[in-house]
Design brief:
By secondary structure, this protein is mainly α. It has one domain. It is built from ten helices and no strands. Helix 2 packs parallel to helix 6. The longest helix has 30 residues. 36% of the residues are buried.
Length: 228
């Protein structure tokens, strides 16, 4: 049996394996929202209040890339990854995998949070994010109001979305359902999300590259070995 990183959950919810799939999936999702999403927001606001930028990670390409308003859609798709992963991880066959993955997904986010606090970087690209109209303009305005231009590297969008796709692939391969068409859809969607971080001027290129590197390192060095 795959181990549980947080034995306290065995005391809180000892009968969780008897729960329905929606209830178990909601538990996984709430673990991430409380321990991952909430700290992100608090750190983002703290960094904006502190107003410190300790590194210069921008390159010329960051300013040369065009602003592509429609790419805000792939950027927002990030918020669908976690319900999907929770539903897959709540299947009766993979509940232990799902719990362990979400625990390590949260810790992976904490690694990024530590870097946000130790090496804060202000993202100065938003001056180029203009001209979006209609629905795309509304989404960009909502994004700028909700997310201060900090929490730069590694991009949390890039880091966590890649980890979720790796987990979906892992379960699909275990079940024999990971087909080539599914792989193309999943990785293309993820690639668009990764590209969107730079093309809507929300992140520097370095943020995406560091997010990719951290995702691969954590998956192959720490998460996948535990799932196996």
């Amino acid at each position: 049996m795959v181990k549980n990183d947080w034995p306290i959950l065995d005391r809180w919810w000892p009968e969780r394996d008897q729960w329905s799939r929606p209830k178990y999936g909601l538990m996984l999702l709430m673990l991430f929202l409380v321990l991952g999403a909430l700290p992100y927001g608090l750190i983002n606001r703290f960094s904006a209040w502190r107003g410190v930028s300790s590194l210069k990670v921008e390159i010329g390409l960051d300013w040369d890339l065009p602003f592509v308003p429609w790419m805000v859609i792939p950027y927002y798709s990030f918020y669908l990854y976690f319900p999907i992963a929770a539903w897959i991880g709540a299947s009766e066959k993979h509940r232990h995998h799902g719990l362990l993955f979400f625990q390590r997904l949260v810790v992976s986010a904490w690694v990024a949070f530590a870097l946000f606090l130790i090496f804060p970087v202000e993202i100065e690209l938003r001056s180029q994010a203009y001209g979006a109209e209609g629905f795309f303009g509304l989404l960009m305005s909502a994004l700028h109001e909700a997310d201060a231009p900090y929490n730069a590297w590694p991009s949390i969008h890039v880091l966590l979305s890649i980890l979720v796709v790796f987990f979906v692939r892992f379960v699909g391969q275990e079940n024999g359902t990971w087909t080539m068409p599914l792989a193309i859809v999943a990785w293309t969607s993820c690639a668009l999300l990764v590209a969107s971080t730079a093309l809507i001027k929300q992140h520097y290129v370095f943020d995406g590259i560091s997010g990719i590197a951290l995702a691969f390192g954590l998956w192959y060095g720490w998460i996948r070995p535990a799932l196996n």
